[in-house]
UniProtKB/TrEMBL annotation, chain A:
Residues 291-312 form the 4Fe-4S ferredoxin-type domain. This is Lactate utilization protein. The lineage of its organism: Bacteria, Pseudomonadati, Bacteroidota, Cytophagia, Cytophagales. One of its GO terms (molecular function) is 4 iron, 4 sulfur cluster binding. InterPro entries: 4Fe4S_Fe-S-bd (IPR017896), 4Fe4S_Fe_S_CS (IPR017900), FTHF_cligase-like_sf (IPR024185), Helical_ferredxn (IPR009051), LUD_dom (IPR003741), LutB/LldF (IPR004452), NagB/RpiA_transferase-like (IPR037171).
TrEMBL record, chain B:
One of its GO terms (molecular function) is oxidoreductase activity. GO terms for cellular component: cytosol. The lineage of its organism: Bacteria, Pseudomonadati, Bacteroidota, Cytophagia, Cytophagales. Residues 8-88, 133-228 form the Cysteine-rich domain. InterPro entries: Cys_rich_dom (IPR004017). Pfam families: CCG. This is (Fe-S)-binding protein.
Length: 452, 252
């Protein structure tokens, strides 16, 4: 499936597509309003962008600092080159603990590594404890948004699902009631898990600590009850100093949901006596992306999801239309770096409107990278036959005479052809749109008559 | 017209030449009324944007060379299109042997409204246009050329087109719910992502209709061609004019 096909499918349910658009627009609007209460907002973005530039330019040495300082704090540090190695490390820790059931708070990285199916293959029960993630896990779906994993579902659908899975009252759609049911269900899972997995929002090179941000406190609940905490971290999540957090925490929640701050920003530095903290530093294509001059900026991303909420395409096609772990504009510049062929339609799923770049808290030039990926993809693929037609057009455009001939041919064709042919289903422009009326003369002809 | 007036070349996008000659005429007459010495260099072709945005920028060296040769002698190049101007400035490939001329030219190319407000330094246009006007900000003009503040940024609001329109006698400016959302044209996107393109266009039209726009205007006919195409198909009661047409009518 390609993005256009998936988007067409999503848009078939017009009422739901409209609801999806409006729901995410509401989040973007909230973000707009709160960002405008911070007079230095644009300076914060610039500062964050520069800090991340510095991180990317010195990533190797910051990672070594981070490892050394984390080890000093008693954290066990692992390195994983790819998703498979990451999963194997997690499994080994679990097997050593003789652990058969774990709780996991939201981590897009573990989605990227497909950790859940891997562990389930080895008979380990994985419970996602973020409410939205638990909902999509019940449905056997991936998250459709990196911050709002179940944003594609309406409360009626969740009510039905909970009735089936958690035996809630049929037809009761009250969010408080449903959330309470999830809390009771999850409490039992928290109490039974010896190992808790979390993602990492920021790793601090200077101190060897790391920060996990959640709104539900589920990361903390899991970690404090378990004996072993495994934190999975992409290598680009490094910040040089603890004080840099002041910049990023202010930007993150405001950009993500329009809140002044995430409810729980938990700092993890050293394991409690008798407990263990493991951190797995994962590359999985990041070093390769760092080496791509035009695309390395994509690694500045702090996973706030603002580009999804603002994207007129994402809002009207849903997260699943992208078929990648990270959907939306940022996903469309990250994913081709992982598999250009598989994700070749994603950089074209954009009008290059630029809203993503203006909303990005770390000033990633997302729409410019979408443009650049298009240039790369067309070099390696015929790109659905668009290649040939575009080459024909090029032959037309660089010769004025040919342009004039084809122009007037086109114009006279439009005049002469019956509507039935112009609006033939094969003519995609005309399917739901009229063509402009053909004037009797071009501007060039008018100018020659009137000004020469 | 002063004898030492700068010499302005009118750059008319290919689809405007073919389908909207009245927009070209209005742009020319408007600049002339504002005292400019304007020439339309013959032999203009497409700037290459559709190819470049489709991923074939490398195939537009020929059109770009032609563009530079045609326009390099002029003091300014002005086009009634933010999108084509953005392409020329940011996405036209470097032409071997003409790098210097190309760099100089990029500083001389302007979209029509920014040329009037920034180069001609027109503070206020005197004229009359008693209609309710809804403005569609083309993304390439707005976020590309920064012809208006963007709703995502924390900046002092401004809008170069609005500055020219709002002083016209009788003109009512329509405030939209989503001031600068994309209309879904997007060049080849209009065809490759047809379903999304149409949905986005319909949503923009609904915003205008629910705020009682009588005439929908903008700086890029490509967006307007798309929106008008949808509105006409659905018998929606809206008129469409390029901003050059409004300004030219209003000040005559």
């Amino acid at each position: 499936m390609s993005h256009p096909e998936n988007a067409t499918e999503f848009l078939k349910d017009q009422a739901k597509a409209k609801w999806h658009d409006e729901t995410l627009w509401f989040v973007r609007d909230k973000r707009d309003r709160i960002s405008k209460t911070i007079p230095e907002w644009e300076q914060l973005r610039e500062l964050a962008s520069q800090i991340k530039d510095n991180v990317l330019a010195n990533l190797g040495s910051y990672l070594e600092d981070f490892e050394r300082n984390a080890q000093k704090n008693g954290i066990i540090v692992h390195w994983a080159e790819d998703g498979e190695e990451h999963n194997r490390i997690v499994l080994e820790i679990l097997q050593k603990q003789n652990c058969k059931a774990i709780v996991k708070s939201k981590s897009i990285l573990t989605e990227e590594c497909h950790l859940n199916p891997y562990l389930e293959k080895y008979g380990i029960e994985v419970v996602d404890t973020d409410l939205g993630e638990r909902i999509v896990q019940f449905l056997n779906q991936p998250p459709s948004h990196i911050v709002l994993p179940a944003i594609h579902l309406k409360k009626g659908e969740i009510s039905e699902l909970f009735h089936e899975k958690l035996h809630t009252e049929k037809g009761n759609e009250d969010p408080t009631y449903l959330t309470q049911a999830a809390r009771i269900h999850l409490r039992e899972k928290f109490l039974g898990a010896k190992v808790a997995i979390t993602g990492v929002n920021f790793g601090i090179a200077e101190t060897g600590e790391f920060v996990v941000c959640t709104n539900e406190g589920n990361a903390d609940m899991g970690v404090h009850l378990a004996d072993v905490h495994i934190a999975c971290m992409g290598i680009e999540k490094i910040l040089p100093r603890r004080k840099d957090l002041g910049v990023f925490l202010r930007l993150l929640a405001r950009s993500a949901t329009g809140q002044p701050v995430t409810n729980y920003n938990s700092h993890f530095r050293s394991p409690s006596p008798g407990k263990e903290i493991h951190i797995i530093l994962v590359d999985n294509g990041r070093t390769a992306q760092l080496a791509r001059e035009k695309f390395k900026n994509s690694l500045k991303c702090i996973r706030c999801g603002a580009c999804m909420n603002t994207c007129p395409i994402y809002r009207r096609s849903g997260g699943f239309s992208y078929g990648s772990t990270v959907p939306g504009p940022i996903g469309s510049i990250l994913s081709p770096g992982l598999d250009m062929k598989k994700y070749s339609t994603l950089p074209f799923a954009s009008t290059l409107c630029g809203s993503c770049s203006d909303v990005c808290p770390v000033k990633i030039n997302i729409h410019e990278q979408l443009y650049e990926w298009r240039q790369e993809i067309t070099k390696t693929h015929g790109e659905f036959g668009k290649g040939l037609s575009m080459k024909l057009a090029s032959g037309i455009f660089n010769s004025p005479l040919a342009y004039k001939i084809s122009g007037s041919l086109m114009r006279s064709a439009l005049k002469a052809l019956p509507d039935s042919l112009i609006y033939h289903p094969l003519n995609t422009w005309g399917k739901s749109r009229n063509l402009p009326e053909t004037p009797k003369e071009t501007f060039q002809q008018w100018y020659q008559k009137n000004r020469s | 017209m002063k004898p030492d007036s700068p010499h302005i070349a009118l750059f008319i996008p290919c689809y405007v030449d073919q389908f909207y000659p009245k927009v070209g005429i209005a742009s020319l007459e408007l600049l002339e009324k504002l005292g400019c010495k304007v020439t339309y260099p013959q032999g203009q072709t497409c700037c290459g944007q559709p190819l470049a945005n489709a991923g074939y920028e490398r195939d537009t060296v020929g059109t770009t060379r032609h563009f530079i040769e045609l326009f390099r002698e002029f003091d300014y190049v002005v086009a009634p299109s933010g999108s084509c101007v953005l392409h020329v400035k940011e996405h036209s490939p470097s032409v071997p042997g003409l790098e210097k001329e190309q760099a100089e030219l990029h500083h001389k190319v302007f979209e029509l409204t920014e040329f009037i407000t920034d180069i001609l330094q027109v503070e206020k246009l005197d004229g009359k246009f008693p209609h309710r006007v809804g403005f569609h900000a083309s993304c390439h003009g707005q976020r590309g050329l920064r012809l208006a503040s963007s709703s995502e940024l924390n900046q002092t609001p401004f809008n170069k087109a609005r500055k020219l329109l709002e002083n016209l006698e009788g003109l009512e400016w329509v405030e939209l719910s989503r001031t600068d959302e994309c209309c879904g044209f997007g060049g080849t996107f209009a065809v490759t992502e047809e379903a999304l393109s149409i949905r986005m266009g319909k949503d923009r039209l609904e915003d205008h209709l629910s705020h009682k726009t009588e005439i929908l205007t903008g700086g890029d006919m490509s967006c307007i061609m798309h929106l008008q195409g949808i509105a006409t198909r659905n018998n929606q009661n809206l008129k469409f004019l390029h901003i050059a047409e409004i300004l030219n009518q209003a000040i005559s």
